[in-house]
Predict the structure.
Amino acid sequence: MEFWCPLHNKHAGHIDTWLKFVLLSKTKELILHLSNSTMGYKLPFFVASGGSYLRCLQLTSVSLKLPADFNGFPNLKRLNMVDVTITNEHVECLLSKCNLLEFLEITCCGMLTTLRSLGPLNRLKHLKVQDCILVELIKMNCGLITFEYSGPIVPLQFATTSGLRTVSVNLTSDTNALDYITTGFPCTMQHLETLNLKCNQHKRAISPVRPHKFIYLRDLRLELNIFGASEDRKTDVLDYAYLLDCAPSLENLELHMWMQCDHEIYHAGRGGLRSLPLHQHTCLKSVYMTGFFGHKDQVELALYILRCSTALKAMKIDSRVKIIPGGTYAAPAIYRRRHYLDGYMVATVFVRGADRNNNIVQVSGAIQYGLARVIDGCTRFRVTWDPDF
């Protein structure tokens, strides 16, 4: 039974009647999606005391206060709470009475300061916590397979992380992604296979001398908002070359960048390109880079990956930004024209030019301006352009 409508408090009597019908019908799945216009509709006590048949419960924009004689949802397997007004104590009580729970989502619950379970949740395998701005600690007695989190860096404590296979983290506080991977929460995951990480970073990574090894990591997706003025930019994209050393089994790498820095494209007059000692990586097959504006450290990272990845089948470089808030093409047209064209030309000249005849590198991002057709038809060319164009 699904209720998806923007009701108000004056409709509370109707909602109560519907919910009574739901329970009398022994409904197994209940979706109650109201809106913030309900001003925190209070879920009636009989839902919390009579939901023995429920397998799935999804609540949006309601207020939940458990009765003193709450017996729990003995058969509940999935619980989603979005914009739910509920206290720490009631969440703990709720979880303690849901022994079969497998999936838990807590999103935009503004009253919560801690999320923890009093007893073991042996069936809980999937946890999603997003945008609970007051939460300062997550401590769960469970063994997860997937974990999704969005918010500032907070202590994350689980009974075990040996079963974690997929982790998605969107950090709203400033941190360096490489530091977080090698010394933060992910470094405790022995069998992690897929990692998605979003970060805003202003400082360069402090990479450990002996980086943690992710032996089983196969898929890595990074979304990086990189800040800094040209004269004192502290970030360095080349640092992410360490990822290949950290993850010897990595097969797919995605690096989506938004370089919110002074636009300084690379050309021969800016000095030679840096190179790191090459350590052969025998598993990496696919690389996808976006937001490639042609900065020197971006070129250096692309060339390092290209040269040390012996099994590489495809490297896709796109000068367009994919992670701008508001959509791919949210930036002004002049911003796209300048950055996208420069990035396309630099990637074509320096990265695809180093590919020789292997046809591994594919460059895109300036086709809408007609530049790709000009460059792709040339076997030898010389390009000059004004970086202030």
